[in-house]
Write a structure and sequence with these properties.
The complex is a heterotetramer of chains A (667), B (164), C (289) and D (206).
Chain A (H helix, E strand, L loop, with lengths): L2 E2 L7 E6 L11 H9 L4 E7 L5 H14 L3 E6 L2 H14 L7 E5 L1 H5 L5 H20 L3 E2 L2 E4 L4 E4 L3 H12 L4 E4 L14 E2 L4 E2 H14 L3 E4 L2 E9 L2 E8 L14 H5 L9 E2 L8 E2 L2 E2 L11 E2 L5 H5 L5 H5 L12 E7 L1 E4 L4 E2 L16 E3 H8 L19 E8 L14 H16 L2 E6 L9 H10 L3 E4 L2 E5 L11 E7 L4 E7 L1 E6 L1 E2 L4 H7 L27 E3 L9 H21 L1 E4 L4 E3 L10 H4 L5 E4 L4 E4 L9 H5 L5 E3 L4 H12 L3
Chain B lengths: L15 E6 L3 H10 L8 E6 L7 H9 L4 E6 L10 H18 L7 E5 L5 H18 L13 H13 L1
Parallel strand pairs in B: 1-2, 1-3, 3-4
Helix pairs in contact in B: 1-4
Chain C lengths: L1 E4 L10 H13 L4 E3 L9 H6 L1 H19 L4 E4 L3 H16 L1 H13 L9 E3 L1 H9 L1 H6 L9 E4 L20 H8 L3 E2 L13 H4 L1 H17 L4 E4 L2 H9 L1 H8 L7 E3 H8 L22
Parallel strand pairs in C: 1-2, 1-3, 3-4, 5-6, 5-7, 7-8
The chains are: A alpha/beta (667), B alpha/beta (164), C alpha/beta (289), D mainly alpha (206).
Chain lengths: 667, 164, 289, 206
């Protein structure tokens, strides 16, 4: 047990932070200081503008040296925020960092309390609690555990691709796990990217093939993470590689088998995921020409052989490299890694949920993603914007905020829709010369060159109506409206209801977390925001970290964002992972549990309780023993121990009893 | 250590000791702060690593030492950072509640809530509800109850033994 | 499940046909409706704009009366009139959500020797027929399927909005289901739940009646032989004002507007008089059926 | 229904400016605290209410601008506008509002206020109808469409009676209209007690 003799009688120094006005405006820091000064064991108490600033920390260091302070209490923000800062200050002055205690009087007091007197009282109570607790503190040593050098990246969209490449370039080995048969994600489906209008494929596919070829990247597509165990620096990740029924090592993606597949161009074929159902594909298929890996996959829900067990198996005959293997089964592999990056992306809002816009009822109501495929040269129409009947639209209405900024669906703004709607407006006009209307609530174009792009569209003669569309119907009030889709909205800038007949409606659907985001976050032991996006550790200061050390998030799985932001986050996440790995070790809070052999009655109550099987029974002594290396410091055994023999460093019973009494010692 | 409690005002505000687990509920209560939600000032939060660490003795001591209510906050079932600490907590909590009932402690005084890191508003709501309920009930009188062996002293002696 | 019947004022006046056909159909289906004793006006829309609290008091009394019945047994309150249905459900929400409404109303009820706990469920006949009785059961009773009759199902507003949970608020389908099941051809149109003008047809005629006109015109253009409604006010506006509408917007329409229960009744072989069809202005052509 | 300004054969010039002191800064808050008004402040002026409203095309201010004006304190304009009276309470706006503002209920709150302040247009049928309806129910416990509408017409446009006479007759002949009011068989006193009770409460409240 890493315990050292207490450095003599407690000489406690208390420091109360104003945090500018964040605390001082609600807590009477002067009287708190004087109150603290009167508490037993406190030899000095000060208050200061910013304790976390250099002068603030220096104050602590100096007091430790000059006044022999051997216990430190800082009353400021949350320990999750600055505990580390102040512990380091102690270390710098030669004091064991575990003689430090923090009182959270910002997040827990000044920011949540209306009345100044109430806030001051609560702050004093928390200070008293911290003072009494720290008096019982004991010196401890942090454990150091070596870090595994590999990284697992989950999700092969642009975020995962960029993170993986960054790490691989730094010489780390990366396992890139992607659920779909190819990497590329949503970006691969897009035609152009705003605001520069450079072609998505042109900038993405080189990175994709780089991933496929990189010696430091193990690419596992059509695979999912089943389980994760371990802690930061040393994770064990179980990956299920779904049966592809094709030997990835030999298939070169020549697609002879696709030609050969007996499913004919009729209803037997299945909707093509990559073209969002606008075209059909066969049972064996390559998602799209530049798919990485260039390896076909057989859809077990469409393949006659796999479904009914009987088929001519023309594909097998067609494959010279004998890659097709109907016997293939799911393969489960386990890898160890030091860090994990989640880049699982998003799904688009299901337009069926807004029946008033007629998606699914009227042929010519499309979602924005469908239109991305329509305008794409490699898309189902070869880049021609054609309606279901093959004709070109003469007037198009683009409806913004579908499923976004709507408390019935998603209260948040999906952030990218305004810009991609402008982009689609440009492309549709360019391809068809159609008159394009944009129906928006607010046009949100913050970003480099974004507002300029909006200007350009306006100059190109795009029509804009500031008003949220109420409904799309085929109900004609005038002859001009006959046979058209009629969009009804209030032109709020003019203050009149307008009916605008169009040939094509584009629904700018918002971004949503994946349906299984909840399971995934459980698997990786991180949190989700109420909307279901992965929760970052701090919205400003730790935007790619999670509450689980060693796990980072990047891209849209953390919230809607556009490509530049996504790539930036991916780089950031990779950087954070590198910092961990190159440090080579993690320091672990010494909050492990231990058994006081003299007090242990050997009753074994604790043994089955430990989720990490860290407790065993020493048969000759007849007492329990805790393997410190396995103990993760939850303290369950301590709470259960009937004789009080089990104790937890940093959270001993008496430390907590003192804290309780301290907290109650001030009204 | 001498008792430092100051003269307590006649009709003092109800005081609630809250034990929050480090990973979910404590984080949520921080989030309540960063989102500037205002709620009743009656709670005093004590951070533990896991709700599984919460010894029923903590709750009893809190009530005995003048708390009018105790709130326990942990991760939702299935979300425990240590796999199942919150279940253990729940088990003990049920037993504790029975014991408290026998001692005539009203049900609303001691409450267990699963609050995820993102559920700041839940922290606010629960705190407000509880403060209101307990204000209605008035101060808690548990001094009467049989006092347990003072483990504080015992384990301190043990510590000395081990440390040396 | 027992069904208490709350006819509301309209079904004893202009909406008699609804009252008659509803009772006949439910009788035929072996689902008895027992009228709530001593019911009073629900406190309908017009009342609300004068004095909401009094309106709520009226509605609450009806609910309390119904609750007395459901103490022991599993009972719900069937309100066929959309306005009644809306007000009764609205009051339930209000009483749950707003203290400043609950307190006076509960007090008033107490002083009148009544109590309200919110146990009683307010249901619409469409809800009961589709979700309790079931479409299959309805089909069993069919003796004269409505082959060849093209119907535009018109739900109006207040039965699907804002509180009804038994059907979609924008694109309801329960009535379509029922009438399709009894052999009618259902016309697909987007105005199913668009307002008929409500009381405005009588107060701001030009405006109110235009709304009814729009519905009639569109139904006709989509080839409907008849419009089916589930609300006495909608039925009144669409049928009784047809002559005035024709005069005002200058073209005859002659569109039969029947209660969905009258059509169900026809299919079940119940006599026209029993269904109150003799009360309609525009006869539902037998030839069509 | 032509709107002022549509006829351009004469150039009409009117000065339109609002001075802060002409507004009632409390108006928005007062409406927001009435049941159903709670989300008023959330409005982002998207216009869904106006475009989904079948009546908005006849309103002198669209529902959206009524919300904006209410929030800004344009009490006189709001209470004297025909908008609140043209609302047929079809709840289309309420269910489609992306910010879950109960617009129909807000309209009710405004109607009640207009009636309380006698701010509604004179000889305007709707409030009159409402009043008649109110009286009848107060008296008999049940409403009588025939009576009420007849009264309403007398009080607003007597000529209407003639125009609707034939309709009335048709209804009579089909037994769908009666001039003698149906009375509650029982419980009318109980109902009256309740109404009186609520009345007391309201007086205490105001």
């Amino acid at each position: 047990m890493a315990s050292v003799q207490p450095d003599g009688e407690p000489r406690i120094g208390v420091y109360i932070c104003h945090c500018g006005v964040n605390i001082a405006s609600k807590v009477d820091t002067e009287s708190a200081r004087d109150f603290a000064g009167g508490l037993p064991g406190v030899v000095l108490s000060r208050d200061y503008k910013f304790m976390c600033s250099d002068p603030g920390q220096e104050m602590i260091r100096e007091d430790i040296r000059e006044h022999g302070i051997n216990r430190v209490v800082v009353a400021s923000c949350s320990p999750l925020m600055h505990e580390r800062t102040f512990r380091n200050a102690c270390i710098a002055a030669g004091l064991n960092p575990f003689y430090f205690q923090m009182a959270n009087i910002r997040e827990q007091v000044s920011w949540v309390t209306v009345d100044r007197a109430e806030a001051s009282a609560k702050a004093k109570a928390l200070i008293a609690a911290a003072v009494r607790r720290v008096a019982r503190a004991r010196a401890l040593e942090k454990k150091r555990v070596p870090v595994h050098g590999d990284v697992v990246v989950v999700g092969g969209g642009i975020a995962g691709i960029h993170a993986a490449l960054t790490l691989a370039e730094a010489g780390k080995h990366v396992y890139l796990v992607e659920r779909e048969p190819t990497i590329g994600g949503h970006m691969a489906q897009f035609d152009k990217t705003f605001p520069t209008l450079d072609c998505a494929a042109c900038i993405l596919t080189p990175k994709m093939s780089e991933v496929g070829a990189h010696p430091n990247i193990t690419l596992w597509t059509y695979s999912e993470v089943d389980a994760v165990s371990g802690f930061t620096g040393n994770f064990r990740v179980t990956v299920r590689r779904k049966a592809r029924y094709v030997d990835e090592s030999t298939c070169v993606g020549c697609q002879e088998c696709v030609e050969a597949c007996v499913l004919r161009k009729d209803k037997v074929q299945v909707p093509d995921e990559f073209n969002v159902g606008l075209s059909k594909r066969k049972a064996v298929y390559l998602p799209f020409p530049q798919a990485t890996p260039a390896c076909v996959v057989i859809d077990p829900n469409a393949c006659l052989q796999l479904m009914k067990g009987k088929c001519a198996q023309t594909c097998v005959d067609a494959c010279e490299r004998l890659s097709i293997d109907f016997e293939q089964e799911d393969e489960v592999v386990e890898v160890e890694c030091g860090a994990i990056i989640l880049a699982t992306g998003y799904k688009t809002f299901d337009a069926h949920r807004t029946p008033e816009y007629g998606y699914g009822r009227y042929d010519n109501v499309y979602t924005s993603l469908e239109v991305e495929r329509l305008v794409n040269a490699s898309g189902p129409t070869g880049g021609e914007v054609k309606l279901r009947d093959g004709s070109a639209p003469e007037r198009v209405g683009i409806i913004h905020c579908v499923g976004s900024r709507d408390r019935k669906h998603n209260a948040y703004c999906s952030k990218v829709c305004c810009m991609y709607s402008l982009k689609l407006a440009h492309l549709i006009k360019e391809r068809t010369g159609a008159e394009v209307f944009n129906f928006y609530i607010d046009m949100r174009t913050p970003g480099k060159g974004y507002e300029e792009f909006y200007d350009r569209l306006l100059e190109e003669g795009m029509q804009v109506v500031r008003g949220r569309v109420a409904e799309v119907t085929d109900w004609a009030m005038t002859d001009a409206e006959k046979g058209k889709l009629v969009i009804r909205a209030e032109d709020t800038l003019i203050g009149t209801a307008r009916r605008i007949p169009v040939d094509m409606v584009v629904l700018s659907v918002g971004l949503e977390p994946h349906a299984d985001a909840e399971d995934v976050r459980r698997r990786f032991n991180i949190s989700c925001s109420t909307e279901g996006w992965f929760l970052e550790r701090h919205p400003k200061l730790a935007p790619v970290s999670t509450f689980t050390d060693g796990v980072w998030v990047a891209g849209c799985c953390q919230g809607p964002k556009d490509i530049p932001e996504t790539v930036a986050q991916a780089g950031a996440a990779a950087g954070e992972a590198l910092a961990l790995i190159d440090r080579g070790h993690v320091e672990i809070e010494p909050n492990t549990a231990w058994i006081d052999a003299e007090a242990c009655s050997g009753c074994k109550t604790c043994i089955p309780l430990c989720p990490f099987s860290a407790i065993s029974r020493n048969e000759e002594l007849g007492v329990a023993e805790i393997n410190e290396a396995l103990c993760k410091g939850c303290g369950t055994c301590v709470a259960a121990c009937p004789s009080g023999a089990a104790q937890q460093n940093l959270f001993t019973d008496e430390e907590i009893f003192e804290e309780i009494e301290g907290a109650l010692s001030y009204a | 250590m001498p008792d430092v409690s100051l003269p307590i005002a006649e009709e003092r505000k109800p005081r609630i000791i809250a034990f929050f687990c480090n990973w979910c509920t404590y984080t949520a209560s921080d989030l309540a702060g960063t989102s500037r939600m205002s709620y009743a000032p009656n709670t005093r939060v004590i951070r533990v690593m896991c709700s599984g660490r919460i010894d029923p003795e903590f709750v009893l001591t809190a009530l005995r030492k003048g708390a009018d209510g105790v709130l326990i906050g942990g991760c939702h079932p299935g979300d425990c950072h240590y796999q199942e600490g919150n279940y253990k907590c729940l088990r003990r909590f049920r037993l504790l509640k029975r014991y408290l009932a026998q001692m005539g402690v009203e049900d609303e005084r001691v409450r267990l809530e699963w609050i995820a890191a993102s559920e700041a508003d839940r922290v606010r709501r629960v705190t407000d509800e509880m403060s209101e309920a307990i204000a209605r009930l008035g101060p808690c009188r548990l001094e009467a109850a049989p006092s347990p062996p003072d483990r504080g002293v015992e384990s301190e002696q043990r510590l000395a033994g081990v440390a040396s | 499940m027992e069904y208490l019947y709350y006819p509301g004022c309209s079904l004893h006046a202009a909406g008699k046909g609804y009252d008659e056909s509803l009772l006949a159909v439910f009788r035929a289906l072996g689902v008895p409706l027992r009228e709530l004793d001593g019911w009073n006006c629900c406190g309908a829309t017009a009342y609300m704009s004068v004095d909401e609290l009094k309106a709520f008091a009226l509605a609450a009394r009806n609910l309390a009366l119904a609750e007395q019945e459901c103490k022991s047994r599993d009972v719900c309150l069937v309100a066929p009139c959309s306005a009644c249905y809306l007000v009764l459900t609205k009051v339930q929400h209000r009483l749950n959500e707003y203290d400043q409404i609950r307190r006076p109303i509960v007090e008033a009820l107490r002083n009148a020797g009544l109590t309200y706990h919110g146990d009683i469920r307010v249901r619409h006949p469409l809800d009961v027929l589709v979700n309790d009785v079931g479409v299959e059961k309805v089909c069993e009773g069919v003796t004269a399927p409505l082959e060849g009759l093209k119907v535009a199902c018109y739900y109006g507003c207040q039965v699907v909005r804002p509180y009804a949970s038994f059907d979609d608020q924008y694109d309801p389908t329960t009535m379509d289901e029922l009438l399709r099941a009894v052999g009618a051809e259902v016309v697909d149109w987007p105005l199913k739940a668009r307002c008929c003008g409500g009381t405005l047809t009588g107060t701001v005629e030009e405006v109110g009646q235009r709304l009814s006109y729009i519905l009639l015109k569109e139904a006709k253009e989509r080839g409907a032989d008849a419009i089916a409604t589930c609300c006495p006010l909608c039925q009144f506006n669409l049928e009784c004002y047809q002559t005035q509408i024709a005069r005002r917007f200058g073209n005859g329409i002659g569109m039969p507007v029947a209660y969905f229960t009258q059509l169900l009744g026809r299919a079940m072989g119940i006599g026209d008089r029993e269904l109150g069809l003799h009360r309609s202005f525009v006869p539902l052509e037998v030839s069509a059926v | 229904m032509e709107r002022p300004g549509c006829r351009m054969n004469t150039l009409t010039v009117d000065r339109r400016i609002k001075f802060q002191e002409e507004l009632n800064p409390e108006f928005g808050r007062e409406i927001a605290v009435t049941p159903g008004g709670e989300n008023l402040a959330r409005c982002i002026q998207c216009g869904t209410c106006s475009s989904t409203c079948p009546m908005s095309i006849y309103m002198d201010h669209t529902p959206r601008s009524i919300i904006a004006m209410t929030r800004a304190g344009f009490e006189d304009e709001v209470l004297s506008s025909n908008t609140i009276w043209l609302c047929a309470s079809c709840y289309a706006c309420t269910v489609q509002c992306p910010k879950e503002i109960k617009i129909t209920d807000v309209m009710y709150a405004l109607k009640q206020r207009a009636i309380a302040k006698k701010a509604y247009p004179r000889r305007f049928a709707i409030p009159v109808l409402a009043r008649e309806f109110f009286k009848v129910v107060q008296r008999t416990g049940r409403s009588n469409e025939g009576r009420t509408s007849a009264w309403m017409m007398l009080k607003t446009k007597p000529l209407r009676i003639l125009r609707n006479a034939s309709l009335g007759l048709k209804l009579l002949r089909r037994g769908r209209l009666s001039m003698k009011t149906e009375r509650m068989p029982e419980g009318i006193d109980q109902m009256r007690t309740m109404l009186a009770d609520v009345e007391k409460w309201e007086r205490r409240a105001s």
